[in-house]
């Protein structure tokens, strides 16, 4: 099979895995009735994996061309662009309540950022890291939430 198609299939598989892992995070947010849920987290993780995969492809393209001397590449910029875009999206989930005494959506915004990081990890073929971090994220979102509720109930007594 043509290496170009194999590369595309590899990126597609990475995007699918990233979306699956992002979906697990989003499912927890959906269950908690948060503004960014299943689909949003899936798309953020998938977009991060796709952008890193395309960046990798772009680097390979110019590395093998006559223009390699003219192109200065920095793969860190791709991650920076993903983080900037996700941060903008996350900012849209943060709002102050009507009385101005509390802020909501910070955890969802952080979850979106982590979903993007998982997508980047998948695209960099760090699959064990991506899966393990997803499990850690789920533990933080669910288990730590239960601990917070328990502490609040004890404080009320």
From TrEMBL:
Subcellular location: Cell inner membrane; Cell membrane
Membrane topology field: Multi-pass membrane protein
Location (main, coarse): membrane
Pfam families: MgtC
Domain MgtC/SapB/SrpB/YhiD N-terminal: 16-149
Keyword Disulfide bond part of the UniProt annotation: no
Listed transmembrane segments: 6-26, 38-55, 75-95, 102-122, 128-147
Keywords recorded for this protein, A-Z: Cell inner membrane, Cell membrane, Membrane, Transmembrane, Transmembrane helix
Key word Protease present: no
GO cellular component, one term: plasma membrane
Family designation: Belongs to the MgtC/SapB family.
Protein name according to UniProt: Protein MgtC
Source organism of this protein record: Chitiniphilus eburneus
Biological classification of the source: Bacteria, Pseudomonadati, Pseudomonadota, Betaproteobacteria, Neisseriales
């Amino acid at each position: 099979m043509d290496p170009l198609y194999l590369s595309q299939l590899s990126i597609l598989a990475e995007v699918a895995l990233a979306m699956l892992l992002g979906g697990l995070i989003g499912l927890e947010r959906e269950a908690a009735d948060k503004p960014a849920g299943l689909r949003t987290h899936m798309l953020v993780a998938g977009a991060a994996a796709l952008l890193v995969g395309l960046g990798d492809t772009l680097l390979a393209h110019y590395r093998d061309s006559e223009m390699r001397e003219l192109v200065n590449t920095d793969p860190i910029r791709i991650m920076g662009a993903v983080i900037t875009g996700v941060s903008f999206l996350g900012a849209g989930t943060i709002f102050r309540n009507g009385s101005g005494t509390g802020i909501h959506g910070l955890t969802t915004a952080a979850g979106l950022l982590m979903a993007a990081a998982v997508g980047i990890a998948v695209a960099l073929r760090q699959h064990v890291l991506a899966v393990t971090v997803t499990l850690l994220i789920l533990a933080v979102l669910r288990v730590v939430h239960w601990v917070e509720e328990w502490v609040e109930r004890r404080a009320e007594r």
